[in-house]
Each structure stands twice: as structure tokens, then as C-alpha cells.
Amino acid sequence: MVLRHKYLNEHSELNEIPKLFNGEKMLVPNLQHLEAFTSEDGTTLSFELLESSDFTNPSWIRLFNVLLNRTFKKMDLFPMKGNQVGHQRSFYNPLSKVELLRHKLEIWPGYIASIDKFDGGLFLIFDNSNKIIRNQTVSDVIADILKHRSKDWRNEATKALVGKTVITRYNNNTYKIDEIDFSKCPEDTFEKADNTSISFLDFYKERYGLSIQDRKQPMLVHRTKRAAVEEEICIYLVPELCFMMGLTESLKSDFRVMKEIGDVTRLQPNQRQTNIEKFLLQLKGTPEALKIWSSWGLQLSTKNLCTTGRVLPPVSLFFGQNYKETATRGDWGKAATTHHVLKAEKINKWALIYPDKASATVREFHECLLQQCKNLGLVIGRAKTIEIKNDKTETYVNTIRDLPSGAQLVVVVMVGPQRADKYSAVKKLCCLESPVASQVILQKTLNNPKRLRSVVQKIALQINVRLYHIFCICTIISSTLLLFRSFTVQIRW
């Protein structure tokens, strides 16, 4: 494939026309005859021209999306991997970032876009998107692990980082961490394309003007495959220059953080419309981007596609005691917590397991749960409370195994941050080994006295659903509801 690209670049006629070559097929905007060509090394190239008037076929759709990617790059919007579906690609603008300095976060605004065929021709499917970047390097994460787990820091660093996505701000590329190579450091050398060797220290200094402070830090490994090379390629990254993406579990559980992020990312329909209009204006104001479209005979309509939507009648929910609630705005939250459930399960034998450090919180939760279950029409007795000495996974598992037979429900309260391994162990045990309905609750969820009643109401409903699988019933509408969140713009060619 590399040689084919080289030969095509030597062809004088092809240098003057727009083209797209994938190694086998070459797409050009206008059908034309190309004479056989002999390269500098004596290799003869011949061309077979295939006319394709159907611009909605897959080859042309792929072409249009390649052109779209080039257009975004000319507009200084950086592509980002990770959430691609079909032809959809994500592009973001770091220059318009919103900084949440208190939480050490950056929110990059951007777009998700693709070109595809629909009824009526080609359309640009377009929507707003955001990407969250943490002002925390991989080196900072490793330093935190070293501070708390100095003995087994390599395994802990591997668990914490492998599989995560990072961004290198010197080129705004994103990479998935596949491995941490503790045998390499920035002082090591690698071979460049011209077969010369250079250290990572000198490379980043020469290429990006960056000075690496920690010369002995381990290197991150990202594995990829390139079209021109059959074998797998390893890209080595310096932790000090890689920034973490996404939110940690502690940030996700912080209501204030999520509210501030939502204030930036949650857009009303008119705001989405305004952003799309800004994009179209920016496109028109970028001659290099317009040239890409015009060279292939493409025109982008300035108007969005308008469709007529259907308004469905409101849905009614039926609760216990023959109560019916019809919500015009689709919100049944108040009704679900103030009326009896449609069918209640009697809970006579259940266990409440919790660490000793959470005893005060659990006592309040227990009493509140009994009261709220009564308000919802649930018949529940007092729990068999089991206090354990630590918060280890094996302690929870062994305690559940020792429960007497016939238990209808197990409620487990966990302390500390959310742990997927601990949660999974409890759920696997209660689903497979010792089948019993289970409810896992984090202590911090119960710590706020002002929100305890609301939280317990929802937990009570979840428990009843797990036991009886129903708390209300709704009317069924025999029609399809289509929710449109993307904007579409027609393309003429």
C-alpha cells in the first residue's frame, strides 16, 4: 500500500485533482481517463475506471465522512476516539474550553457528526457533545498510589490505569493505555522512521519543546495497527505528559460537581439550535474547509431539516387502593412515593449487614425504612441486624453464606468509595451460589439526614420490585414514539 501511494504521488495528472485512495480503489469527483504510468523505478501502473453515479452507495458515504473529518480539522476542531458509532465522529474545540478550577476539570465543547443517506438524499447528522478532561496527569495518579501503597504500587498502578483513556495535550490525541512498561523510562531510545535513534527526552524536546522532569518514570504503552503495516505497533507515552480523561468515582458521586458539569453540558433545544447555527457560520468563514466541499461538488444547506412530530396522549399509572395518576409532564416521582404500591410482598425474614463503623447510620436507616414501607403499603418486619468488624469483601461474602435458610432479602451497607469488585462479589453470591434478593447501599448515601426520607422511599420501592417485580402498572400505547435529539442538514451534490 505504501508503494501504491508513492507511485500515485509521482503521477502528474493526479496531483492536480482531488482524490481519495484506500490502497485499492481511488475516488475522484469527475470521471476521467488516466493513461498508464511508469514510475521512477520502472514500475508500470494501469488504471481501470469504474463509473459510479449512485452517490449513496457505501463507498461514497465513506468518502463524504472522510471529507467531513478533513473539514473539521481545517476548522481547528480536534478528533477524539472512544464513542464512534458507524460513521459518527467526535470533534472538540480546546480553545473554547470551560474550566472548573475548583474541581481541576476542563470541559471541551464539540460536535458529533456524520454524513449518511436517508429518505430524500444525503444528510449531515449533527449534535452537540462535550468531553471532560482532568487536570491530573498519569504521573500524579502514580504518585498518589506510591504515597498510599508503596509496597505493591506497580500492581495498583496497573489496576488503576490499564484500560483508561488519556490525552496528550501537545498534539491533542487520545490513547487507551494497554500496558505499563516498568522496564522503560524517558532516557531510553527508540528508532525513528529514518532509522536513526533518539531518546524520548530529546524527541519531546526537539519535536514539541517539552522538558521531561522525571527521567526514571515508567512508560505507558498504547497498541495500534496501521493499514500500511501488518504487525502491531506499540506507541510509548510519557506519564508526565498524559492527562486523564473522564470522571473518577468520587467525582461522579459528588452532587455539587455533577451539578456544575450539568450546568455547562445540559443544553436546551434552542441552545442546541444556536450552536449548530454558529457551526455553519464558522464553516462559511473558513475558506480552506469550503474548498474541500466545493472541490467535490458538495453544498451544505443553511437550513435544518424540519419534521412534524406527534404529541402522544399522557400515560396513566395505576397504584394500590385503586389510585390512578396521569402525569402530563411524564413525572410520577411524587405519586410513586406517596401512594401504596399495586402489589406488596410480605417480608418476614430479612437480614441487614453492615460494618461496625456504620452502626449509627444503619440504625436510623432501619427505623426510617420500616416507617416508609408502612406508608407505601409494604408489610415488613424488623431485620436481623448483623454487625461485621471490617469492610473486606470476604467478610461480606462469608457473612451472607452463614445466614440461615429461608431469608427473603439481604440488605448490605458498605462504607468507603464504591468498589465494583466488592459489589460484584456480593451480587454474584446472592444470584448464583445462595439465591436471595439483595440490596447494596453505600453508607454515604444515607449520611444526609435531610435527604434520608427521600432516599429510603426509593430503596423501599427497589426492594419491593426485587421481590415482586412490580410497584405500579401503566397504560400501553400501541404506537411508536420517536425521539429526535440530533439536527440534520441536507447536502446537495
| Average pLDDT taken over every residue | 81
What gross morphology would you assign?
globular
User: How far apart are the termini?
Assistant: 30 Å
Total DSSP E strands: 26
Assembly category: single chain
**Number of structurally distinct domains:** 3
- Provide the gyration radius in Å: 30 Å
Structural class of the helix and strand makeup?
alpha+beta
How much of the sequence is in beta strands?
25-35%
Helix content: 25-40%
**Main β-sheet: number of strands, strand sense, barrel status?**
10 strands, antiparallel
* Number of H/I helices: 14
Q: Would you identify the regions where 5 or more consecutive residues have pLDDT less than 50? A: 475-490
What does this structure look like?
By secondary structure, the chain is α+β, with helices and mostly antiparallel strands. It folds into three domains: 2-51, no CATH class; 60-182 and 218-265, no CATH class; 316-474, Response regulator (Rossmann fold), CATH 3.40.50.2300. It contains 14 helices and 26 strands. The chain has helices spanning 2-10, 58-74, 138-148, 153-161, 200-208, 249-252, 255-265, 269-284, 287-295, 333-338, 359-375, 393-401, 420-433, 452-468; strands spanning 20-21, 26-27, 37-38, 44-45, 78-80, 89-92, 98-100, 105-118, 121-137, 165-168, 173-176, 179-181, 189-191, 197-199, 219-224, 233-237, 242-245, 299-304, 316-318, 324-326, 350-355, 384-388, 409-414, 437-442, 473-474, 487-492. The strands form seven sheets. Strands 5, 6, 7, 8, 9, 10, 11, 17, 18 and 26 form a ten-stranded antiparallel sheet that branches. A hairpin with a 5-residue loop joins β19 (316-318) and β20. α2 packs antiparallel against α9 (287-295), α3 runs antiparallel to α4 and α11 (359-375) packs across α14. Residues 475-490 have low confidence and may be disordered.
